[in-house]
Amino acid sequence: MRDRQAFQGARRARDFEAFVAGAAGRLLHAATLLTAEAPDDNPRARRLLTHALAHTYACWDRLRGEDPYDCARQALATRFAREAWHQYGGAGRTGGLGRTRPQAPGALAVLTPQERLILVLALYEGVAEEQAAALLGLPPDRVRALCDRAITTLTHSPRGPARAAPGPKVAPS
How many domains does the chain have? Predict the structure, then answer.
């Protein structure tokens, strides 16, 4: 009995290590986008990743056929949303994840935490609008509106991607 438990524990650890080796880089990049930190100086993103991986490891045996990446991504998003909610004043005038925030070095820093979360889920992670809405407890229409607003903000921001890589001007059609 003890040998079987040791074998299962070793297999569990090996499987989790393989998952981390394959997914940690992408999850860290998503966390860095969420926190709007510089990629080479991202302590908040690394802390989010650590919590997400710890949560995923704790749930590992219960996943049974589910994608562990989805579990880790959900833990990452939930933790980010919870921290932003507490940091920016709960359900005050800005809705918890509102506009008041410190300046950060990343291009996404011009967005609210909620806009960053939705944009990262939708565009970087490819999460469907309905899934993002369910994860965040928002109606799909609200998620769509926030995503559209975030894209518009980035497009018109001097720190956004539109200014980072200027190209030839094209006349509107």
Answer: 1
Q: For the range 57-64, what are the long-range contacts, defined as Cβ-Cβ under 8 Å and sequence gap of 24 or more?
A: 57/16, 60/12, 60/15, 60/16, 61/12
Residue 104 Cα distances to 4, 118, 124, angstroms: 50, 18, 19
Strand partners, 38: 41
Q: What percent of the chain has pLDDT over 90?
A: 64
pTM above 0.85, yes or no: no
pLDDT digits (tens, 9 = 90+) for 25-83: 999 999 999 999 999 999 999 999 999 999 999 999 999 889 999 999 999 999 999 99
Confirm whether 13 is domain-assigned.
no
How far, in Å, CA of 8 to CA of 137, rounded?
Answer: 36
Name the CA radius of gyration of the chain, rounded.
Answer: 19
